[in-house]
């Protein structure tokens, strides 16, 4: 079993959320460069990764807040600086409505793995690259499992450290938290 590795220097605000794992990654360096294992099935994570993506983001970009009922996710910042927020929306979870805020840096490699049923979004302070894995292929996403909440709804509780991010048109149309809760129902 993997030991739970949540560093207070990375989780900057919030409280525990069941099923979230922050895994410190070990960069092995020598005169040629470095090698870092970013995922291993022997880590016994609750993640059945079926798609891996390499994502570039410009500075001041916010991606999310997204929500999926069917798939788990993996996030690893490879370069840059990101703030990542999670909020537990699973009504039967002992950590229902708890939230977490992480500050991640590419030079301090770590992977954040989280289960379905969590609102999630990430902001990039600088041009950044991250690896992302999901347990359902993007081509299989359906409207019934591709939800969102407007990123700065005060009812979310996130103390974001930014105020005017660049967001997608779709994210700009996301509802507030109360409307979202009514729309998704129990799952």
From TrEMBL:
<protein>
    <recommendedName>
        <fullName>dTDP-4-dehydrorhamnose 3,5-epimerase</fullName>
        <ecNumber>5.1.3.13</ecNumber>
    </recommendedName>
</protein>
<dbReference type="Pfam" id="PF00908">
    <property type="entry name" value="dTDP_sugar_isom"/>
</dbReference>
<dbReference type="InterPro" id="IPR000888">
    <property type="entry name" value="RmlC-like"/>
</dbReference>
<dbReference type="InterPro" id="IPR014710">
    <property type="entry name" value="RmlC-like_jellyroll"/>
</dbReference>
<comment type="function">
    <text>Catalyzes the epimerization of the C3' and C5'positions of dTDP-6-deoxy-D-xylo-4-hexulose, forming dTDP-6-deoxy-L-lyxo-4-hexulose.</text>
</comment>
<dbReference type="InterPro" id="IPR011051">
    <property type="entry name" value="RmlC_Cupin_sf"/>
</dbReference>
């Amino acid at each position: 079993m993997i030991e739970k590795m949540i560093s207070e220097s990375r989780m900057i605000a919030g409280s525990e959320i069941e099923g979230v794992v922050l895994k410190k990654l070990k960069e092995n360096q020598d005169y040629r460069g470095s090698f870092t294992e970013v995922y291993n099935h022997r880590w016994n994570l609750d993640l059945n990764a079926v798609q891996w993506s390499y994502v570039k983001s410009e500075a001041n970009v916010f991606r999310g807040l997204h929500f999926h009922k069917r798939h788990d996710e993996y996030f690893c910042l490879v370069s840059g600086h990101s703030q990542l927020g999670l909020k537990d929306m699973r009504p039967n979870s002992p950590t229902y409505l708890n939230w977490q805020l992480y500050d991640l840096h590419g030079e301090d490699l770590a992977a954040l793995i989280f289960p379905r049923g969590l609102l999630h979004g990430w902001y990039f302070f600088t041009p950044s690259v991250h690896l992302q894995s999901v347990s359902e292929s993007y081509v299989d996403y359906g409207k019934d499992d591709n939800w969102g909440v407007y990123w700065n709804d005060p009812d979310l509780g996130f103390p974001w450290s930014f105020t005017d991010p660049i967001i997608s048109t779709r994210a700009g149309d996301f509802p507030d938290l109360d409307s979202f809760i009514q729309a998704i129902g129990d799952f």
